[in-house]
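A reminder from the course coordinator: this example appears on the midterm review sheet, so study it carefully.

Given structure:
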């Protein structure tokens, strides 16, 4: 059994995917970019601002599904430019202050909406 999560606390999907899927005690949250949930427009001119918006989107989706950032067990971070790693990591660290989740970070050639960062998460419930 699986439940599809759709909340106004995160941006509406821009393609044929769900914001998140809850199944077998876990929540799988689709990669989020810095879209404003209210307007659907990209926000943030730099990596710090975009990372903050992405993490706020993830937080909203997690909470709407009955979880939270403390229950995240794995993240995958996609960066347009690995030279932005330190700035992204500084903001990321403000959201995962103790017992941070496992993480992979990779550089990619392009992200949806020409975003600078995209993050997906897996969380327990």
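Designed residues:
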């Amino acid at each position: 059994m699986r439940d599809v999560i759709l909340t106004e606390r995160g941006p509406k999907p821009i393609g044929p995917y769900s914001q998140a899927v809850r199944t077998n005690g876990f929540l799988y949250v689709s990669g989020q970019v810095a879209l404003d949930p209210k307007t659907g427009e990209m926000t943030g001119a730099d990596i710090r601002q975009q990372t903050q918006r992405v993490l706020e989107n993830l937080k909203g989706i997690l909470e709407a599904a009955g979880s939270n950032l403390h229950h995240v067990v794995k993240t995958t971070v996609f960066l347009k430019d690995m030279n932005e790693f330190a700035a992204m990591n500084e903001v990321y660290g403000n959201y995962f202050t103790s017992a941070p989740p496992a993480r992979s970070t990779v550089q990619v050639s392009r992200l949806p909406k020409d975003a600078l960062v995209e993050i997906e998460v897996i969380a327990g419930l």
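The beta strands are 2-5, 20-23, 26-32, 72-79, 102-107, 117-124. The chain has two helices and six strands.
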